[in-house]
Amino acid sequence: MNDQNASEQNRPIVELYTDGACSGNPGPGGWAFLLRHPKTGKAIERNGGEKDTTNNRMELTGVIEGLSALTRPSTVELYSDSQYVLKGLNEWMAGWKRKGWKTASKQPVKNVDLWKQLDELAKEHTIHFHWVKGHDGHEENERVDELAVQARDEFARR
Questions:
Q1: What CA–CA distance (Å, rounded) separates 109 from 93?
Q2: Which candidate in 41, 135, 136, 137 is catalytic?
Q3: Environment class of residue 158 by beta-carbon count within 10 Å: exposed (0-12), middle (13-18) or buried (19+)?
């Protein structure tokens, strides 16, 4: 076993559930995450938002905030209902980086500021990606949706 595999085996395993919500696109938006240690069951939840944003930015921000809450390198089981986030991290980002943060059609990557931030955070962790169907009764996904909508609504009133 090499040193990298040994260090990865000693990492704590955490579950990260994220979501984003937006009223209009752009419009007021909210993000949320639930971070849980599966062995102890201990969890933290956080949410926030912006007055004028997009749904994709809020989806990305939920993941960024969740990863930022980790205090040490971890194995992260990331659960999201956003194909944009999961495919971006798992499939598209490597190509964007090779092309200087351009898409296959040579256009600038949208939300590149957040993707770059997420790229840096992801380097610290081992991330496994899990898509969950939104609004389908998945308890944790429903909870982060509720928190993201709550934050969105707070920013809509401002």
A1: 10
A2: 135
A3: exposed
| pLDDT mean over 100-105 | 95
Catalytic residue selected from 29, 30, 48, 81: 81
Beta-strand pair 75-80/43-53:
unpaired
Sheet containing strand 13-22, strands side by side: 43-53, 27-36, 13-22, 75-80, 126-131
pTM recorded for the entire structure: 0.92
For this structure, is 119 an active site residue? no
For the record, the structure tokens of 132 come out as: 């969950």
Q: How far apart are the C-alpha atoms of 98 and 126, rounded to whole Å?
A: 21
**For residues 47 and 20, what is the distance between their CA atoms, to the nearest angstrom?**
9
Residue 136: predicted pLDDT: 85
